C-alpha cells in the first residue's frame, strides 16, 4: 500500500526494497533515507519516515527513412513520457514524394502526431517521382533516342537528336503542334510529362 507503519527494535538496521509495478521504475528514496540504492539499509536510532519515489517508464519512438528524404526530428530513437504527444514531419527530397509511414503503424498523415502507449518504430517511405517523355518522329526521319515513351526521374537532363532520312532535312521540334526549338541536338531538363515530335521536310 502507499503508506505503511512498522514497529522495530531500536538499533536494529532495517533493509528496505522498492518494487515498482508495470510501467514504473524506482527513482530514489526521500525523507530519512536518501539516495537511489535499492535495496537500502536504514539505521533505526529514532523514528523514521521514508518515501520510495517511482517514475513512469518512458516510451521510445525510433524513426528511420526509406528512399530519399528527411524527417524532423532527425532519424534516431527518442524517449517520451507516457501520455505525451509526439510529432514527426517527413520532407521528401527534390524529385521524390512522401508515400506514408510504415512500421508500428500505417498512416499517410504528414506531419504524424501520435500518443504512444507502447514503443514505436516509424519508417518514412519516399518514392522517386517518374515523369513521362514521349518522343515522336514525323515522316522522313527518326530520333536518338528512338521514338517511344520513356519514364525518367523529375529533373533529368535530356538530349534529343533528330536524324533525317535520305532526301529529308530536319525542320524543328514541336510540342502540341507548336515550334519548340530548331536546335539539333536539343537539351532540356524534364520538369513535367512531355510529348515532343521531330519534324522533317523533303529536300
What is the succession of H and E elements? EEEEEEEEEEEEEEEEEEE
pLDDT below 50 for ≥5 consecutive residues: which ranges? none
Radius of gyration: 35 Å
How widely separated are the two ends? 102 Å
Biggest sheet strand line-up: 14-12-19-16-17
Main β-sheet: number of strands, strand sense, barrel status?
5 strands, mixed
Work out the helix count: 0
Shape field: rod-shaped
The mean pLDDT is: 93
Global structural class: mainly beta
Helix content: under 10%
The proportion of residues in beta strands is: over 45%
How many strand units? 19
Report on the structure:
With 203 residues, the protein is mainly β. The chain is 0% helix and 57% strand. The protein has strands at residues 14-16, 24-31, 40-42, 50-56, 59-66, 69-72, 76-80, 86-92, 96-103, 112-114, 120-128, 130-137, 141-144, 148-153, 157-164, 168-175, 178-181, 186-189, 194-202. A hairpin with a 2-residue loop joins strand 16 and strand 17 (178-181). The mean pLDDT is 93.
Fold blueprint:
Layout: E1 14-16, E2 24-31, E3 40-42, E4 50-56, E5 59-66, E6 69-72, E7 76-80, E8 86-92, E9 96-103, E10 112-114, E11 120-128, E12 130-137, E13 141-144, E14 148-153, E15 157-164, E16 168-175, E17 178-181, E18 186-189, E19 194-202
Parallel strand pairs: 5-11, 12-19
Antiparallel strand pairs: 1-3, 2-4, 5-7, 6-8, 8-10, 9-11, 12-14, 13-15, 15-18, 16-17, 16-19
Amino acid at each position: 500500500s502507499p503508506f505503511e507503519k512498522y514497529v522495530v527494535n531500536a538499533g536494529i538496521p532495517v533493509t528496505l526494497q522498492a518494487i515498482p509495478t508495470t510501467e514504473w521504475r524506482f527513482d530514489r528514496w526521500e525523507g530519512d533515507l536518501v539516495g537511489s540504492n535499492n535495496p537500502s539499509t536504514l539505521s533505526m536510532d529514532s523514528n523514521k519516515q521514508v518515501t520510495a519515489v517511482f517514475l513512469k517508464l518512458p516510451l521510445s519512438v525510433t524513426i528511420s527513412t526509406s528512399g530519399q528524404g528527411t524527417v524532423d526530428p532527425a532519424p534516431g530513437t527518442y524517449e517520451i513520457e507516457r501520455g505525451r504527444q509526439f510529432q514527426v514531419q517527413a520532407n521528401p527530397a527534390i524529385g521524390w514524394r512522401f508515400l506514408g509511414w510504415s512500421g508500428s503503424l500505417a498512416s499517410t498523415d504528414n506531419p504524424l502526431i501520435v500518443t504512444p502507449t507502447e514503443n514505436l518504430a516509424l519508417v518514412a517511405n519516399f518514392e522517386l517521382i517518374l515523369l513521362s517523355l514521349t518522343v515522336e518522329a514525323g515522316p522522313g526521319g527518326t530520333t536518338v533516342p528512338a521514338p517511344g515513351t520513356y519514364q525518367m526521374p523529375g529533373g533529368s537532363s535530356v538530349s534529343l537528336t533528330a536524324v533525317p532520312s535520305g532526301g529529308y532535312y530536319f525542320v524543328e521540334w514541336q510540342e502540341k503542334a507548336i515550334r519548340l526549338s530548331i536546335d539539333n541536338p536539343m537539351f532540356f531538363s524534364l520538369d513535367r510529362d512531355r510529348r515532343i515530335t521531330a519534324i522533317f521536310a523533303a529536300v
